[in-house]
Every structure is written in C-alpha cells, then in structure tokens.
Recover the amino acids of this structure.
C-alpha cells in the first residue's frame, strides 16, 4: 500500500491584514488546519525615533518618547524621566513621586481593558469588545480631566510632573475606583467563567515557565506563565517603593499555572484590581508640597548642558518592562545616547513557539495574547549583502541612487 504524500500550503498573514492593527508578517505553512512551519518577520514600522531624540534637547525628546506608543504613552516618558534623573542627579519632590504612579496605573487600567476587548474580538465576541470598551471610557474620562488629554498626556517632566492633582481630580479618582471594582467582578464572570471563552483560550498560546525564561518574556505574558517578575516589585521607584507591590501570577489566584491566553486574561483582570489599590494608596497618602524640582525649564536645560552622566530608567508598562538607556555628555542640553527597549521586542519571541503545531484559527489569539506593539518593537534595521557584510549608510545611499536612476531610464524607455 503506497503512502499518500502530505500536501502543505503556504499562508501569508500581513503586513497588511484586517486582524493585524499594525504591520507585521506571519508566514505559516499548514497541513490541513495544523501549522507545521512558521516564520515571523518584523521591521515594517521603524521610524528612527531614537536618532531624532539625540538631535533635540531633553524636554523635546521627552515629548518624543511619549509618541513611541499611543497606548503606553506614559510608560516611555516615565522610564525616560527616571533614567534622566539618575543620570543628572535630580530628585523629584515627594508629591510628584506619588502623582506619577497614579497616572501610570490609570494607563494600565485602560490598556488592560482595551486588550481584553481585543482578545474577545479575535475569537468572535464582538459584543464583549463593545462592552469592555464602553467600560474603558470611565478611566479615559478621568485621564482627560487630570491631564487634558485621553492619550499623550504630557504629564511628566524631568524632576517631577507638570500638573498637580486638585480635589475635584481626587473625587473623580475615588468614583472611578468604586466603578471599576464592580466592573472587574463582572469581567471575571463574563470572561473567566464563560465556557466558550475558556474553550477558545485554554491551551492556546501556551508557554511553560522554563520556556518563558528562555524566550525572555516580560510583563503579563511572563506572569501568565508563572514568573514572578514586575519592575514595581523588583526595582521599586517613586511611591512604588513605599508599597508592597507583588507580581500577579495565576498560581496565587487559582492554585495552578497553564501559561495560556486564558491565564493571560486572568492576570490582566486581577492587575486592574491591583492598580485600583495602588491609586487609592497614593491619593490617601499624597504628600503636600511642590511638584517640580526645577520649575524653570531654561534652568533645567542649562543644568543638563553642564552635567555628564548615564543611567537606565525602567518602568513596568502594561505590556511589560520598558527600559530607556540615557547618556548625557555635559556639552549639550539633550541626550548624546538614547536607547529604548520595549516589551513587544521580547514577547514577539513567543509567537514562533506558540504557533508551531497550533490550528490556523488560533493565529489571531496567539498574535493578540501578548498585546503586541509594532512601533514599540521596531528600532533599527541591519542590512547585509550576500556575503554577510553589513551595508553602511554610504553603500545604502549609493545603491538607492543607482536604483532610482535605473527606474528613471526604464520609464524613459516605456515612454
């Protein structure tokens, strides 16, 4: 009896695809519905932000850092100011050190609710998408009340914060806390207790603890695998140092870890509740006093221009740890070196592992479960020729000119 040869099909997904909100390419080879080979290609959204930031003064670069990612638009400036303050020897006033975590945790709440709606959408629960995003409006309204904007808050400054909290802001925060304690209980019911949601997420995007370590996963993706890692716990800063923040892991909630998309959902819902506790602690213990170490921005830039130093600033963003390396050389008013590492850079490593052997229908869930950000992820492209030699700027420029001239000649011939 002759063997029947297995037929595989090539399924390209992206970089432009309805299920992918940002450009990335997943190339899958399938036998029937099973993925037998997969390759993830990134590098479609490099914007040169770090290069631009090293050509501006530190305040301008701070605002630029806020635009690395729209959803993490407080996390990057938070890491930037922490790193800058360490490098420049500046300490934010105590009141600012308590206001900063409030804004950061508000962002975590809205980001996690956004993700939960997206994962529901990816498995076909659009009614849950709309319900969660309606609930997300509450925290966005509070952010707009405090900062003047729903996204890109321009709240942080090297040496403190730009805006103080008023009594009306604190009242709105307390009302929001009450609202979300009830909302999270409802989320547990409609997500964690729903048999269909559990069937579509249990065992999907499953990463065991040892593999999560090998892949260098971070944030809720790592914690869903049972890893107790959280910058607020491991390297506490500002008001976090006054609190006993513990990493949220499934084994502390249900007594077991599976490291799948269901556990990732669980971790994020319980992290929302943790954020509510942190915000409440900060407003209950908010110190009096000023909010900026150096209120005059000209004086701040002059100090930066005369100070040399380097440091790393890290913050636990909603997707995982954000790290900014900054070096000031004491000759100009901006960073001479600025390097950013965002969580998606690490977490995308899980896609190849999770997709291999998975069903085609699970691709959207695997892609979404890490809450990816392509613009955060893409930093630099290294181009090599056929011999392995890295092509530098002069070579790339020459080749671009040659190609342009060849195209011009081709167009002339066609005319």
């Amino acid at each position: 009896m002759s063997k029947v040869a297995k037929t595989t099909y090539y399924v390209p997904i992206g970089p432009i695809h309805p299920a992918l909100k940002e450009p990335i390419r997943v190339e899958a080879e399938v036998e029937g519905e099973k993925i037998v080979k997969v390759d993830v290609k990134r590098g479609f959204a490099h914007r040169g932000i770090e290069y631009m930031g090293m050509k501006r003064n530190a305040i301008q670069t701070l605002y630029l850092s806020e635009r690395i990612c729209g959803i993490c638009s407080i996390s990057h400036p938070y890491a930037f100011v922490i790193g800058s303050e360490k490098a420049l020897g500046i300490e934010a006033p105590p009141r600012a050190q308590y206001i900063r975590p409030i804004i950061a945790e508000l962002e975590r709440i809205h980001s996690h609710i956004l993700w939960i709606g997206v994962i529901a959408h990816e498995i076909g629960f659009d009614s849950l998408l709309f319900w969660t995003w309606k609930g997300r409006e509450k925290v966005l309204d509070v952010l707009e009340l405090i900062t003047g904007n729903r996204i890109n808050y321009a709240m942080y400054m090297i040496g403190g914060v730009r805006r103080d909290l008023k009594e009306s802001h604190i009242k709105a925060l307390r009302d929001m806390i009450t609202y979300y304690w009830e909302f999270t209980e409802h989320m547990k019911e409609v997500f964690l207790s729903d048999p269909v949601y559990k069937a579509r997420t249990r065992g999907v995007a499953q990463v065991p603890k040892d593999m999560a370590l090998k892949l260098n996963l971070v944030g809720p993706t790592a914690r869903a695998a049972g890893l107790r890692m959280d910058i607020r716990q491991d390297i506490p800063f500002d008001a976090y140092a006054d609190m006993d923040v513990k990493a949220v892991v499934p084994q502390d909630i249900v007594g077991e870890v599976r490291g799948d998309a269901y556990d990732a959902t669980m971790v994020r819902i319980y992290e929302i509740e943790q954020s509510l506790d942190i915000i409440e602690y900060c407003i209950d213990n908010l110190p009096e006093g000023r909010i900026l170490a150096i209120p005059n921005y000209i004086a701040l830039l002059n100090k930066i221009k005369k100070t040399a130093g380097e440091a790393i600033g890290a913050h636990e963003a909603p997707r995982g740890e954000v790290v900014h390396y900054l070096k000031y050389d004491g000759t100009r008013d901006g960073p001479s070196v600025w390097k950013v590492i965002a969580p998606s850079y690490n977490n995308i490593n899980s896609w190849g592992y999770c997709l291999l052997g998975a069903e085609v229908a699970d691709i959207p869930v695997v892609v979404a479960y890490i809450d990816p950000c392509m613009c955060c992820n893409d930093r630099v492209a290294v181009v090599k020729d056929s011999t392995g030699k890295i092509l530098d700027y002069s070579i790339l420029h020459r080749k671009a000119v040659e190609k342009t001239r060849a195209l011009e000649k081709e167009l002339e011939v066609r005319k």
